[in-house]
Amino acid sequence: MLSPGNVVERYEVERELGGGGMARVYKVRHVALGSVHALKVLDPELVGNAELRARFLDEGRIQARLRHPNILVITDVVVAPGVAGLVMDYLEGESLDKYLASARRPPDADEVRDIFQQVLAAMGFAHEHGVIHRDLKPSNIFLEQVHGRRVVRVLDFGIAKVSGAEGRPVTRTGSRMGTPQYMSPEQIRAAEDVTVRSDIFSLGITLYELATAQPCFQGESDFSIMEKIVRAEFVPPDVVHPGLEPGLRAAILRAMALEPERRFASCQEFSAALVEQAPARTATPLRVPVTRIPVTVAPAQPPEPPAVQKPEPRPEPVQAPAPRAVEARPAPAAPARLAEPKPSAPIEKKAPKLAKKPVPPSPEKAEEAEAAPPRGRPWRWALLFALAGLVALFGSGLIGMLFGGSAPKGGAPVTRPGGSPGTRSSAARDESLSIEVRPANLTTLELMDPQGRQFTVTGPYVDRKPTPGVWHVMGRAPGYEDERWTVEVTPGKPASLRVSLTHRGGRKSP
Ligand SMILES: Nc1ncnc2c1ncn2[C@@H]1O[C@H](COP(=O)(O)OP(=O)(O)OP(=O)(O)O)[C@@H](O)[C@H]1O
Ligand SMILES: [Mg+2]
After folding, report:
1. The pLDDT value given to residue 431
2. Which residues line ligand 1 (CB under 6 A)?
3. Looking at ligand 1, which residue's alpha carbon is closest to its atom 22?
4. From the CA of 159, which ligand is nearest?
5. Are 62 and 157 in contact (CB under 8 A)?
6. Residue with CA at minimum distance from ligand 1 atom 25
7. What angle is formed at CA 377 by the lines to CA 375 and CA 380, rounded to 5 degrees?
8. Does the annotation count 135 as an active-site position?
9. Domains in the chain with CATH codes
10. Measured from the CA of 90, which atom of ligand 1 is nearest?
11. Mapped to the 3 state alphabet, what secondary structure does 362-381 carry?
């Protein structure tokens, strides 16, 4: 134990910062330079153990080789009677475990990605240099504040090992294992079986904790925790945090796959998955205003004109000048509603074929409509009515085809949202939830709707009027691994989930 004022070689102790399994960390000042550093010294009862001391100092040598903006820099080594220490940059800020412990709710997805991408950058670099960390966990990730900016640093390559070209250990084996809560199954079974993919597993657990603000594996003893890890017994992250983005959830589960070969092969791959699965925040609003805009075909007082989307391949009754006018001036409500897309649900990429409900024409459009159809040209009115009739006919026919006859027949007036149960407005028709599961004929789905109502179905599932919110889905099939997903139903949008189960032998279902 060192106390304030103690001098170890060239460093004077200012105060203790904390301690872990083998060592304590102090804030120190270089006596000649006055510079501030952190000094990590091996616990006194361990320092007499020559092998441990050598291993501890190896940490410094390994980490000192890794010059990367997201890896804590080791600058010196001190060896004095009864002291073995590593000198490193002193960091202002807090470790990730402390940050999460004080967080009232999980960080939002952007923050999660920002922090974690920096961790992956550090670890990708270390792996490329043949260094496996073996003790990745939130307390070894530090959120440093540098002039008001957050920089993430990975610390404590204390039990790191150096790997050869094939990822095999070429130096130490069997050294102290990682912290049980963050260890990979293979690390639990045999410490020397650790590879890059073991770090990926620990990163998966760390990402779980970062994204949900809850530790993944907890138990009364190290043994019970390890048992849970090797059996993959944990609460799915999206159950702990229902607002979790599906992309983050998928990345966590892939990184935490029991079999190393099903995990990401590298931090670069892990990082790319996080980027790819991030919801496109700008693409959606650009795409949608064009496809969602109804074409106005009716005169000033239309008899409930069915709203028709901008043409997909379908009967073409609408060649009127309206599309041009509408494209030029999107209805005001649509872009606003879609400007903030719900990132989570794998909602169908294409806009629905039928508009949700007729959007009232914008004031400019109304003006145009008044101005455009000239009086004294009755043939044009007749044509417009004929077109409206055609659209109504085709519209209801299409609805019938799409919904298996559930649409009102014979051009009956369409009920508005809030109508009696059983009737369906055009808005409600868009709000469907479909779940396609493979292997379809074998699978049992357990569903929990946003109100917590649970039910079981066999095979694929379609609901034409699902309760909006987050649905939890669990798939089971004999011979396949149970899997869980969430899908978010947003009012007025079709939501779909396409999932496949993984065969216990590791094969993905067709
Ligand atoms: N370079 C540093 N600058 C500032 N604080 C540091 C630095 N290195 C470590 N600390 C802090 O010192 C404390 C002790 O760190 P230490 O690594 O010994 O503990 P740990 O990470 O909890 O356990 P483990 O031994 O398993 O790594 C932690 O609060 C850590 O955030
Ligand atoms: Mg540490």
Report:
1. 74
2. 17-23, 25, 38, 72, 88-91, 95, 139-140, 142, 155-156, 179
3. 20
4. 1
5. yes
6. 20
7. 110
8. yes
9. 7-89 (3.30.200.20), 94-276 (1.10.510.10), 413-500 (2.60.40.10)
10. 3
11. CHHHHHHHHHCCCCCCHHHH
Strands of the sheet containing 469-476, edge to edge, are 454-458, 444-448, 469-476, 483-489
To test the pocket of ligand 1, the residue of 151, 155, 176, 206 to mutate (highest count of ligand atoms within 8 Å of its CB) is 155
Residue 483: count of CB within 10 angstroms of its CB: 18
The Cα 94–Cα 77 span in angstroms is 24
In this predicted structure, the answer to whether residue 106 has a pLDDT above a threshold of 90 is: yes
Range in 34-48, 345-359, 392-406 the model is least confident about:
345-359
Give the distance (Å) from ligand 2 centre to CA of residue 169: 22
3-state secondary structure of 182: helix
369-427: per-residue pLDDT in tens?
333 333 445 556 656 665 655 555 554 444 334 433 333 333 333 323 333 333 333 34
pTM above 0.70, yes or no: no
Highest mean pLDDT among 62-76, 307-321, 468-482: 62-76
Which residue's alpha carbon is at the smallest distance from atom 23 of ligand 1? 20
Which atom of ligand 1 is found nearest the CA of 21? 25
